[in-house]
Fold this sequence. Notes:
The chain is α/β, with parallel strands linked by helices. It folds into two domains: about 80-265, NAD(P)-binding Rossmann-like Domain (Rossmann fold), CATH 3.40.50.720; about 270-410, N-(1-d-carboxylethyl)-l-norvaline Dehydrogenase, domain 2 (Orthogonal Bundle), CATH 1.10.1040.10. The protein has helices at about 50-75, 80, 95-105, 120-125, 150-155, 165-175, 200-210, 225-230, 240-250, 265-285, 290-310, 315-320, 325-335, 340-350, 355-360, 365-380, 385-395, 400-410; strands at about 1-5, 10, 20-25, 40-45, 85-90, 110-115, 145, 160, 185, 215-220, 235-240, 255-260. Helix 3 (about 95-105) links the parallel strand 5 and strand 6. Helix 10 (about 265-285) runs parallel beside helix 14, helix 10 packs across helix 17 and helix 16 crosses helix 17. Its EC number is 1.1.1.8. It is found in: Plastid, Chloroplast. It is an enzyme of class 1 (oxidoreductase).
Amino acid sequence: MTCLLEPPFRCLPPFQPFSPPRFRCYAAPGAQPLPSDPDTETLVLPLDGPKERREIVRLAWEKLVRWSRSLQSRAKTDVLERTNKIVVLGGGSFGTAIAAHVATRKSPLEVNMLVRDPQVCRSINEEHHNCKYFPQHELPKNVIATTDAKAALLGADFCFHAVPVQFSSSFLEEIANYVDPGLPFISLSKGLELNTLRTMSQIIPKALKNPRQPYVVLSGPSFALELMNKLPTALVVASKDQKIANSVQQLMASKNLRINTSSDVTGVEIAGALKNVLAIAAGIVEGLNLGNNSMAALVSQGCSEIRWLATKMGAKSTTLTGLSGTGDVMLTCFVSLSRNRTVGVRLGSGEKLDDILSSMNQVAEGVATAGAVIALAQKYNVKMPVLTAVARIIDNELTPTKAVFELMNLPQVEEV
């Protein structure tokens, strides 16, 4: 329910197509009811004390519940019903979490994971655990691992791509002959290809030699561990084809996973790539013990830089303030589970980048993406001081302490 917080405190009905029946609430003492509407029931509620205010809140909540149930009753489930097989490319943490989630949606569903490591393959098939990433989590019995690309892709209805961006082109070129030209690809990978500055929506069709390969990007604030633990999570699927986006939504949405849809592929991809670089910067601030003021200032500036570049590339500003933008930034920059933030913390604490990367068993995409981001910014003539500083630190051209000094001494500007 949308409330105008000014006298006479009128509560107007929400977006009409989804709201039967509608209530129009008057909460000001002595106020006259709003003009009648055949589809609207007018409630005059005197705002004389806590009891009346609680009544307004209760009515608003009941309205929201009815609206939710109305949408749920119309929700289609035919996509899940007719899906028999999906394939997940990659055996990393997030690919494993997505495989486990989709497998629980329908027990007869065959979920194939295409992995490179024979040991991981055996542990999934024989022990129902991913020994490398989730040794303590039991996977559903309908999750099957294989190292055979042809077998994994044969008859698949959907394909989740969970291979790191920098290895995606070569990997996809190897398996291109087994990919059906109509198979929808759902990209879980976040970043930019270092030498070409391409996003996954450009990499996948090029590597598969099929410009019409159906494509969806899935992004948002989501740690694989919390997905595995079935904690409430919300994500965005974006595609230029709304029908495909809706299909993926139906396939994945559950009581613990909310899926929003979008048509802004560029915004979702660029935000997903750049937030990893910003998370390294946030980690550096933490490693240098610069305090909460510095952290808030840095992340705010970084969000502005992401918006400047993304909108220049055609993204919608609303995407950048949503789940796949601000939502993902908050998770990646402020939570210790973030790989990219961890890299930054260790850089700020004085460790060398090579030592940090050699000790990690997962890819921190922001390290490779940083240089590509700056090249992209140059291409679109966008100034990005925070993200440029991260790239220079990664290239060993600037120390974290010196970077902070230089950023603080930039000219004072009008906020935009």
